[in-house]
């Protein structure tokens, strides 16, 4: 099995830090009235947000981390890595095309949609057969992971389309899960390789 380089471990580790740290700090900077449960992550980087640069950097860094992780996640199958990279590019575009102070942005919405779908689907195309295969890249685990990520995305879409009270919460849940899964795969691959070599 091809090893995962240290820089891919670093990028996979930093991805959820940039995302969760970004939305936590940015939400704390907003005036009274912003609700993490109700309002979206994109609103924190929107043109009407206070200190919008915080979440803009967080999103751009998150997307870059996904790109780097996809490049270094050598044990995963190529189609899955390609989707992870596409999700990274889409996330960078989400940061580059913020939502306006009022109304919506079609470019932002399309980029966000592509990002959510690709980051939810990539595990289903990243699995490998044979041994040794990290547990996180086994076919059943990969398909279940994709199903869970896409299921969380579906919950968010339902909230968004019905203007539900948990738009922000469900978006944070799916985005957080999508940021954490590449880290789980990277760590599983590193541990599997160490075990195969007789390491700890």
Please tell me about this protein's structure:
The mean pLDDT is 93. This protein has one domain (6-190). Helix 5 runs antiparallel to helix 6. The two termini are 17 Å apart. 68% of the residues lie in helices and 0% in strands. The chain is mainly alpha-helical and 200 residues long. It contains 7 helices and no strands.
The percent range for strand residues is under 5%
What is the count of distinct domains?
A: 1
Fraction of residues in helix:
55-70%
Report the order of strands and helices: HHHHHHH
Number of strands: 0
Average residue pLDDT: 93
Rg: 17 Å
**Main sheet makeup:** none
Number of helices: 7
Unreliably modeled segments: none
Compile the SSE list and pairings.
Elements: H1 6-29, H2 41-45, H3 53-72, H4 78-96, H5 106-121, H6 139-161, H7 167-196
What are the defining features of this structure?
7 helices; 0% strand; mainly alpha; 68% helix; 200 residues
Short description:
Helices cover 68% and strands 0% of the residues.
């Amino acid at each position: 099995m091809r090893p995962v380089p240290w820089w891919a471990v670093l990028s996979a580790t930093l991805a959820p830090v940039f995302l969760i740290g970004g939305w936590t700090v940015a939400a704390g900077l907003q005036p009274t009235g912003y609700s993490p449960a109700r309002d979206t992550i994109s609103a924190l980087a929107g043109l009407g947000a206070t200190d919008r640069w915080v979440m803009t950097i967080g999103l751009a860094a998150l997307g870059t981390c996904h790109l780097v992780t996809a490049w270094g996640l050598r044990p995963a199958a190529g189609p899955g890595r390609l989707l992870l990279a596409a999700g990274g590019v889409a996330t960078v575009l989400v940061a580059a095309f913020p939502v306006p102070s009022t109304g919506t942005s079609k470019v932002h919405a399309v980029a966000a949609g592509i990002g959510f779908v690709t980051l939810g689907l990539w595990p289903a195309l990243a699995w490998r057969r044979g041994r040794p295969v990290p547990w996180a890249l086994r076919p059943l685990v990969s398909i279940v992971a994709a199903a869970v990520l896409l299921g969380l995305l579906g919950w968010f879409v339902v909230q968004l389309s019905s203007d539900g009270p948990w738009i922000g919460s469900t978006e944070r849940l799916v985005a957080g899960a999508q940021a954490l899964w590449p880290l789980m795969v990277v760590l599983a691959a590193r541990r599997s390789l160490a075990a195969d070599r007789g390491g700890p």
